[in-house]
Design goal:
heterotetramer; A mainly alpha (315); B alpha/beta (155); C alpha+beta (390); D alpha+beta (185); A: 315 residues; globular; C: 390 residues; alpha+beta; Cytochrome-c3 Hydrogenase, chain B; three-stranded antiparallel sheet; 15% strand
């Protein structure tokens, strides 16, 4: 009797919204980012299968583990990062209101799961023993300090207004009373800025600034381990855009799971394009300058909305 | 089983053909001419990204090494080290007359350590002083063909 | 990263580094993220060009000196030809001089746009990098059409030029110049508007006027520090006295100032090319060459990176007795050290790039002990005072 | 704040500037300086190109009574000095780039000529075509100064032998006569 739910759970993990779907869809998102960037720069850009080719090629390439590296940490870092992101994807509401592994308080778990890759990447950079990796890891963690405050403040505002810490609760509230993007515009902007930093895209691509510290924490990674990091990138795009869509644009819920899933996908693509566009028209900031938009603007905006919610001023 | 293996083989070949990351390693004595043409190849007019070609920042990520310029004694060991850092399978493209033969600087002068192919194995030579970006793209394409031949069994 | 003393660590930049086009080695000593000292170690690029030049005839040397540096290739040949012409008292026809001016300034436009792209790439603004290089392709087309190659023009020769500019070509150049001018104006506007570029580049890599005088910096680096100097105005060569243009000086003393100086200079260069095309005189392309006689002279040229000096000594043979090259980077590179100290590590590549280092122009001294095969670098002061045994 | 860059980027978004390279032919202006090739019909093997080449990319090989000129554009600087100095207009720079190859010795263009053997010592010293060309030119331009007899002598006896035969009275007379006709003694 347990076979049917087990099969469904397996299908969810492997096919939708698990491994196969998220890799395919995330690959398309990363390609979209690269394509839009190329087109805005006046180029033609890569073909649609580029991400898959990149990942697969790296998977079958030789993996070199440098002598100076701490072997266990070096190998474990991308795996931890990938695992955390994979679980995060399973928590996202790909069935309208429901997610594959939904439970009470999953929104907070989701936010925590998205923090793990940052630490894992920093850990891997430290373990690689390259000076660039160490500097990159330091930057990765200091950037975390900058963006975590506005991210959590705006998320907390959403939790407070929705009066719920589960994803389905947040979506239900938005379906009833309109999206939080309109009701909490300042927290929304703050979340967008913080999410940009979370994705480590410009102006916050400080941890792997190519011209300053080669590739940051990824410098020494090669072959299949680098491929895992590429996959992390794919999942990260998917998870962060989907999280933004869930927290702030959970509004049109029709009830039909297929239609809801399609709407959700469109929203994810929309937010991914916004992040891509900000990435394209900005240069990179210095690490101590990153505090200016993140704390002085984003955190302040989020705080205003938090106060508004606490005082009951939001309709 | 065998059909699956074959499928994986062809997939590996496809991936190697469609995703090529370059590492640009100047060979020491260079006049920058070839280097700015390599840089021009990634810019809008030539845009190698549409073939899946990227300039990788670290040699650890690269498939193809582009060597431009003339080997000097000073930078010989550095180039060798970069070559060893690149994971297999890899290919080397020597760009420009200097890398092929020493050009006007000859190979007999005192700071010169010979041509590039005396230090590391070179797969494709691109003539020109400097070659046009189109020629560089063609050279990389030739190197990709060589990479495909060298495809090991996917593990 | 290795610990040096107390909290101070050293971080290598190079020899192979994505921010550097060519290989050079910088060691930066940091305390946290703040730079406290820097060590510059060029020399990977030494090719023994001056030695080769003393074995070849005057005309064959033109192609050799063109390959000192591929970015300012025209400036090098112009300087060499001017030096030889001064030395052997050759009067170059005016048409040849004007054609030289056109190629010289096209070279400057291409070099400045290239540098601007690289500078934007270093601060992470890939979109402007791509746009500036897309604009640069127009001037590359001009150069390719005029000379037959994109990088090494090979047009200058001793006593004149080797290729003529026909009226059709002149029209083509005019058309392309319009694209370049529009593009450069757009780049200037984009830089001025963007607050993030300003946040990254202003107050970074400061070289005050006094320090600039002390380190004798040349070219755009000096002009961005408020020093009004330009060889084209101060000591006109190849008929630069015929042209009207402005010397672009900025008082910003930082990287932002250097960006603005180079962009403004690009516009001035476009003006000069237009004037030269308009007033192109008739005449011969190449002068009659005399037999060499013992003499010596210098050629001073304003290369895209600053003052470039060639010294030529002749004798009765067709091979120069001595050719000495002093490149602008040779003067500007020591000034990087005061610029770096006190800045953040994240700004180091940007400061290194801001003087537009062209190490292929520069590297010409490395001391190799042949008996032990060991190499050593020497302090410039020691070298000048003769403390180093060669 | 960023209006101009956004505007320009959108303009580029609509029309990318990328050329369709493998499909379309790249831009080559007139007189593009590509790899040099010899014209076997016109070349006469005078080695003027080898003398002016700044990179020594042109080598002259004399073997078995044949002279081979070989331009290896793996070493070429593409400066067009050879094209400029060729008296017979026999070497030209192609208006396309050199195609990349796996074999660096493939970048070659050669031309081979039969040589004249010295009447006295049998050493080949000049190509037949070059000798004909010299004769033709001398007869055209300096027929009042030198007779065909002297020309034949100069073009059939090698330099080394000419030095030696200066001591033989008959040839000496011939030389003096040529010198007097030339106006110098």
């Amino acid at each position: 009797m347990y076979i049917v739910p087990l099969l469904i759970a397996l299908a969810e993990i492997i096919i939708y919204p698990g491994l196969i779907f998220s890799i395919l869809f995330g690959g398309i998102i990363v390609w979209l980012y690269r394509k839009v960037r190329a087109r805005l720069q006046g180029r033609r850009g890569p073909p649609w299968y580029q991400t898959y080719a990149d990942v697969f090629k790296l998977l079958i390439k030789e993996t070199i583990i440098p002598l100076r590296a701490w072997k266990v940490g070096f190998i474990a870092a991308p795996m931890i990062s990938l695992a955390a992101l994979f679980v995060a994807v399973l928590l996202l509401p790909f069935f309208g209101k429901e997610s594959a592994l939904g439970f009470l308080g999953d929104a907070i778990v989701l936010l925590y799961l998205l923090t793990i890759p940052t630490f894992a990447i920093a850990f891997g950079g430290m373990a690689s023993g390259s000076p660039y990796g160490i500097v990159g890891s330091g930057r990765e963690t200091s950037l975390l300090v900058w963006y975590e405050l506005p991210l959590w403040l705006s998320a907390a505002t959403v939790f407070a207004l929705a009066n719920s810490i589960s994803i389905s609760g947040i979506i239900e509230e938005q379906a009833l009373h309109g999206p939080f993007a309109i009701r909490l515009p300042l927290a929304f902007i703050a979340f967008l800025i913080a999410a940009q930093a979370k994705l480590a895209k410009r102006p916050f691509d400080i941890p792997h600034a190519e011209t300053e510290i080669v590739a940051g924490p990824y410098t020494e990674y090669s072959g299949s381990l680098r491929a895992l990091f590429e996959l992390c990138e794919v999942f990260k795009w998917l998870a962060v855009s989907a999280l933004t869509a869930t927290l702030f644009l959970g509004w049109p819920v029709i009830g039909n799971p297929v239609a809801d899933a399609l709407i959700f996908i469109v929203k994810i693509v929309f937010f991914a394009l916004i992040f891509a566009f900000i990435d394209i028209i900005n240069p990179r900031l210095r690490i101590e300058q990153a505090g200016w938009p993140l704390w002085k603007i984003a955190a302040a905006l989020a705080l205003i909305d938090t106060i508004r919610v606490c005082m009951g001023l939001v309709i | 089983m065998s059909s699956k293996k074959c499928f994986l083989c062809s997939l590996a070949k496809w991936a190697r053909r469609k995703s090529v990351w370059l590492y640009h390693a100047p060979a020491g004595g260079l006049c920058n001419g070839c280097d700015i043409e390599i840089a021009a190849a990634i810019t809008p007019r030539y845009d190698v990204e549409r073939f899946g070609i990227l300039l990788a920042p670290s040699p650890r990520h690269a498939d193809v090494i582009l060597v431009a310029g003339q080997m000097t004694k000073h930078s010989k060991e550095r180039l060798l080290r970069v070559y060893q850092q690149v994971p297999e399978p890899k290919a080397v493209v020597a760009i420009g007359s200097c890398a092929i033969s020493g050009n006007v600087f000859t190979t007999e002068n005192y700071p010169v350590a010979g041509t590039v192919d005396q230090i590391i194995p070179v797969d494709v030579y691109v003539p020109g002083c400097p070659p046009k970006p189109e020629a560089i793209i063609l050279g990389v394409v030739k190197a990709i063909e060589k990479l495909e031949k060298r495809t090991a069994e996917p593990t | 990263m290795e610990k040096v003393e107390g909290k101070i660590c050293s971080i290598p930049i190079g020899p192979y580094h994505p921010a550097l086009e060519e290989i050079a080695f910088y060691k930066v000593y940091v305390e946290g993220e703040r730079i406290v000292d820097a060590l510059i170690k060029p020399g990977f690029n030494h090719r023994g060009i001056e030695k080769l030049a003393m074995q070849r005839s005057y005309r064959r040397n033109v192609q050799l000196f063109e390959r000192v540096c591929g970015i300012c290739s025209d400036a090098h040949t112009t300087a060499y030809c001017v030096a030889v012409e001064n030395c052997l008292k050759i009067n170059v026809p005016k048409r040849a001089q004007y054609i030289r001016v056109i190629e010289h300034e096209a070279n400057r436009i291409h070099s400045h746009l290239l540098w601007f792209g690289i500078a934007m790439h270093i601060i992470g603004f890939d979109t402007l990098f791509m746009h500036s290089w897309a604009i640069r392709e127009a001037i590359m087309d001009v150069v390719e059409t005029l000379t037959g190659n994109r990088v090494n023009y090979s047009v200058n020769t001793i006593g004149g030029v080797r290729r003529d500019i026909t009226p059709e070509l002149a029209k083509y150049v005019e058309e392309k110049l319009k694209i370049v001018e529009k593009g450069t104006l757009y780049l200037m506007k984009a830089v001025k508007e963007d607050k993030t570029i300003k946040a990254r580049t202003s107050e970074v890599g400061i070289l005050t006027k006094e320090e600039a005088r002390k380190y004798c910096v040349v070219g755009p680096t000096a002009r961005a520090s408020g020093i009004d100097e330009d060889i084209r105005k101060d000591d006109p060569y190849i008929n630069f006295e015929d042209f009207e243009f402005e010397v672009c000086v900025e008082d910003a003393c930082d990287v932002y100032g250097r960006i603005m100086v180079r962009l403004r200079e690009t516009l001035e260069s476009i003006k000069i090319v237009r004037q030269a095309l308009k007033n192109l005189p008739e005449g011969k392309l190449i002068a009659d060459l005399p037999y060499p006689f013992p003499s010596e002279d210098v050629g001073r040229v304003e290369a895209p990176r600053g003052e470039l000096i060639y010294y030529v000594k002749s004798n009765y043979t067709n091979i120069p007795e001595r050719v000495k090259v002093r490149t602008p980077t040779f003067v500007n590179l020591p000034a990087v050290k005061p610029m770096l100290i006190g800045n953040k590590l994240a700004d180091a590549p940007q400061i290194l790039a801001s003087i537009d280092p062209c190490l292929s122009c520069n590297d010409r001294l490395v001391i190799v002990d042949l008996r032990s095969g060991r190499e050593k670098t020497v302090l410039l002061q020691d070298f000048i005072r003769g403390r180093v045994k060669l | 704040m960023k209006s101009s860059i956004v505007k320009e980027a959108l303009k580029y978004f609509v029309n990318p500037v990328t050329e369709a390279f493998p499909a379309a032919k790249p831009y080559f202006p007139k007189k593009y300086r590509g790899p040099p090739v010899y014209d076997q019909d016109k070349c006469m093997g005078c080695t003027a190109c080898a003398h002016v080449c700044p990179a020594d990319a042109i080598t002259v090989i004399e073997k078995d009574g044949k002279r081979t000129l070989e331009v290896w554009y793996g070493k070429c600087t593409f400066c067009a000095r050879c094209e400029e100095s060729c008296p017979a207009d026999a070497i030209h720079l192609m208006e396309e780039f050199g195609v990349p190859s796996e074999d660096k010795l493939a970048f070659k263009s050669t031309v081979t000529h039969d040589m004249v053997k010295c009447k006295l010592c049998g050493k080949p010293f000049i190509t037949i075509r070059h000798a004909e060309w010299i004769k033709k030119n001398l007869l055209e331009k300096m027929s009042d100064v030198v007779g065909s007899e002297e020309i034949d002598f100069f073009l059939t006896v090698c330099e080394d032998c000419r030095h030696k035969v200066e001591n033989i009275p008959e040839f000496r007379k011939l030389l003096i006569r040529a010198a007097i006709k030339g106006g110098k003694v």
